[in-house]
Amino acid sequence: MNQVNEIREDYCLPAFEHHVFVCHNVRPADAPRPSCTSDGKSELHTRLSQLTKDAGLAGRVRINKSLCLDQCEHGPTVVVYPEAVWYGNVKPEDAAEIVAEHLVGGRPVERLRIAEECLNTKSCPHQRKE
């Protein structure tokens, strides 16, 4: 069994420092909640991925597309783990600030953060009443 652990250690990649999830969920135009993208494409995801590589973070930071993160009224939504920092109303032009400040500098971008009282609650003032 010791040999198996040694082999596993030799071939395992280090854990990512950050996992970034970018919602690119699309809802019908008449849905009661908004979509994070209108066409299922995500310029925001593309920009974050490219800027992460440009910053030399490939292999250390993983940028993932996600379906609904259930923060639709704040979309487009991005969440960064392991810190569980939620960003809302993120535009492609905000990607450079997220990469530079948060992923490289370790400081969340406060102006884009979703308020704590809006996360995982049915009482967020931004949610539409159904």
Task: Describe the structure in your own words.
The chain contains 3 helices and 4 strands, in the order αβαβββα. Helix 2 (43-54) packs across helix 3 (95-104). It has a single domain, classed as Glutaredoxin. The longest helix has 12 residues, at 43-54. Helix content is 25%, strand content 15%. It is globular, with a radius of gyration of 17 Å. With 130 residues, the protein is an alpha+beta fold. A 4-stranded mixed sheet has the order 2-1-3-4, with helices on one face. The model has no long low-confidence stretch (mean pLDDT 84). The chain has helices at 2-11, 43-54, 95-104, and strands at 18-23, 61-66, 78-81, 85-87.
Short description:
With 130 residues, the protein is of the alpha+beta class. It is built from 3 helices and 4 strands.
Strand order of the largest sheet: 2-1-3-4
CATH topology: Glutaredoxin
Give the low-pLDDT segments. none
- Strand percent estimate: 5-15%
- In total, the number of domains comes to 1
* Average pLDDT rating: 84
> How would the global form be characterised?
globular
Q: Specify the CATH class.
A: Alpha Beta
Number of helices: 3
Let me know the largest β-sheet. Answer: 4 strands, mixed
Give the SSE string. Answer: HEHEEEH
Assign a percent range to the helix content: 10-25%
Rg over alpha carbons:
17 Å
CATH homologous superfamily label:
Glutaredoxin
Mind sketching the topology for me?
Blueprint: H1 2-11, E1 18-23, H2 43-54, E2 61-66, E3 78-81, E4 85-87, H3 95-104
